[in-house]
Amino acid sequence: MPRNSPPAQPAASHAVAIRTVRFGAPATVFDASAEVAVEAPVNIVYGNLPYAVMMTTPSDLEDFVTGFSLTEGIIRGIDEIRSIAVTPQDDGIVATVELAPGRFREHLARRRNLSGRTACGLCGVETLTDLPEAQAPGGNSSPIAADAIARALAELEHHQQLNRLTRAVHAAAWCDRNGAILSVREDVGRHNALDKLIGARLRAAQDASDGFMLVTSRASFEMVEKTAIFGAAMLVSISAPTSLAIERANALGLTLVCIARADSATVFAGRLAAPAESEAR
């Protein structure tokens, strides 16, 4: 496990003064306060070389940097990170990552500049050949049952603590094959939330062999790609997929389930376990 700096991160939300207008005859106005999600620039630096500035919620930043490093192709495993130092500054946060020497040399060979946006997964990619390419998820995990998705969806809101306060952030959850939620990360950016979750699983030495991803956003190419890079075999999204997400999921053999609601979900790629398969376990 890499050695990380002690937590020194800003709060994920803070209170602001607001004025609420209630329409009617007559309209009424009253003052109150509300919790808002913090959005902050995080400069990710490998060695002494800046790589990316990402707009993110400043919580679980070691998880975020670890997951980002994996899904960006900077590292292939957690053992290639020696340390992560998170340093708040007046104009943002600097996250300095020390890589294993061999990995840092390879990083120098493929170094590029990335100007981040909130929830932007491919900012800075200059040509189509630069698009990340995951491998098909490893292992021989059997399909997940529909009732596992329903259970995870029913539990998800109880794990979204920051969203309950702010109603402004996405969540990514790791669920076991029975639908129990094991880990959740939240962020103003959907890609950031997923990177945080992947990083948390990596840092805890927990793999993707027998469970699935659940996200509170649309399923785009990048979300499918990041899921597959981590090694998970299924991605569930509460919103709709893009055409490229479906194509990529099919190419990777990844099960893609979208428009997931309390009473239904749509399978766009792969398959779920048949009722008989579910009952046999």
Task: Describe what this molecule looks like in 3D.
Helices cover 27% and strands 31% of the residues. With 281 residues, the protein is α/β, with parallel strands linked by helices. It has 2 domains: 40-130, Ubiquitin-like (UB roll) (Roll), CATH 3.10.20; 146-280, Cytidine Deaminase, domain 2, CATH 3.40.140.10. The chain has a 6-stranded mixed beta sheet with strand order 1-6-7-4-5-8. It has a 6-stranded mixed beta sheet with strand order 10-9-11-12-13-14. A two-stranded antiparallel sheet has the order 2-3. The longest helix is centred in the last third of the chain and has 14 residues, at 190-203. The two termini are 34 Å apart. 42% of the residues are buried.
Task: Outline the fold blueprint.
Layout: E1 3-4, E2 13-22, E3 28-37, E4 40-46, E5 49-56, H1 61-71, E6 81-89, E7 92-99, H2 101-109, E8 114-115, H3 146-156, H4 161-166, E9 170-176, E10 181-187, H5 190-203, E11 211-215, H6 221-230, E12 234-237, H7 243-252, E13 255-258, E14 266-269, H8 275-280
Parallel strand pairs: 1-6, 4-7, 5-8, 11-12, 12-13
Antiparallel strand pairs: 2-3, 4-5, 6-7, 9-10, 9-11, 13-14
> How many angstroms separate the termini?
34 Å
**Shape estimate:** flat
Tell me about the biggest sheet? 6 strands, mixed
CATH architecture of the largest domain: 3-Layer(aba) Sandwich
* Poorly predicted sequence stretches spanning 5 or more consecutive residues: 123-128
Class computed from helices, strands and strand pairing: alpha/beta
Helix content: 25-40%
- Side by side, the strands of the main sheet go 1-6-7-4-5-8
Q: Tell me the series of helices and strands, N- to C-terminal.
A: EEEEEHEEHEHHEEHEHEHEEH
Number of domains: 2
What's the level 1 CATH class of the largest domain?
A: Alpha Beta
